Amino acid sequence: MKSFTRYLFRTTLAALLLATAAFAATAQDFKIGFVNTDRVLRESAAAQAAQTKLQQEFSRREREVDALGTQLRTASEAFQREAPTLSEAQRSTRQRQMVELERDFQRRRQAFQEDLNLRRNEELQQVIERANRVIRQIAEAERFDLIIQEAVYIHPRHDITDKVIAGLNSAPAR
Question: Measured between alpha carbons, how far is residue 107 from residues 15, 65, 69, 96 in Å?
Fold first, then answer.
């Protein structure tokens, strides 16, 4: 019985050593890459084009909302100055007008922000999809086993963000 236990122990130990050696040999061939998505969304031509497109699309509405905010501030300041000289009826009427103007401003500002965020997300999603295609192309061409997009720390030799940005900038927009 002791010899069988000893044999089982030696066999298990040998199998464990072989598995460890095989894993070490495989780990040396394991190629990892890292992509900084924030940099891709900040520095790539596609992301900058999307930002420009959004600015052009929403600049008129932004000016309108800003003008309404300025109008509200001006009306509020005028009311503060003139309130002591106004009759009770005039003061009440002006206060109602200011409340209505404030509601309109808040409603328009909120609608503007919601529309802008929705469109920004749509545009960024398109850029991310294109970037992911470029990442897959790089991974296949350079035989990466794993490419990650978020990490606490990554050694700079694994960072392929510049390659992704270059590939994204050279890839035609779809």
Answer: 70, 10, 12, 16
